[in-house]
């Protein structure tokens, strides 16, 4: 099939799995570039990290785009509608399974 491919255009492309050929899938330069650098914050006392946590939480919560009251009402209605639908579905399956078991066991 590959011999029917035209020879011009994008150059040769590798075929097959490199792991089977024993060739690394990541070059050494790429691997070293992706390595995680050690965190220098380990020298800071644990108490400072705990104290800094709450202001960071407040800062992140200010970035949140909160839904409006109208959106929350719509979402709540949708959730309750699906809740009612799924409850009815489970109740129906349970009822039909009960009838089926009675038919099989009580002859």
From TrEMBL:
Record region (Disordered): 1-27
This protein's name: Protein translocase subunit SecE
Subcellular localization: Cell membrane; Membrane
Single annotated GO MF: protein transmembrane transporter activity
Bilayer disposition of the protein: Single-pass membrane protein
Similarity remark: Belongs to the SecE/SEC61-gamma family.
Gene3D superfamilies: Preprotein translocase secy subunit
Assembly and oligomerization: Component of the Sec protein translocase complex. Heterotrimer consisting of SecY, SecE and SecG subunits. The heterotrimers can form oligomers, although 1 heterotrimer is thought to be able to translocate proteins. Interacts with the ribosome. Interacts with SecDF, and other proteins may be involved. Interacts with SecA.
One annotated GO biological process: protein transport by the Sec complex
Protein function: Essential subunit of the Sec protein translocation channel SecYEG. Clamps together the 2 halves of SecY. May contact the channel plug during translocation.
Pfam families (alphabetical): SecE
Keyword Protein transport attributed: yes
Keywords, alphabetical: Cell membrane, Membrane, Protein transport, Translocation, Transmembrane, Transmembrane helix, Transport
Entry GO terms, CC: plasma membrane
Record carries keyword Membrane: yes
Transmembrane segments: 72-101
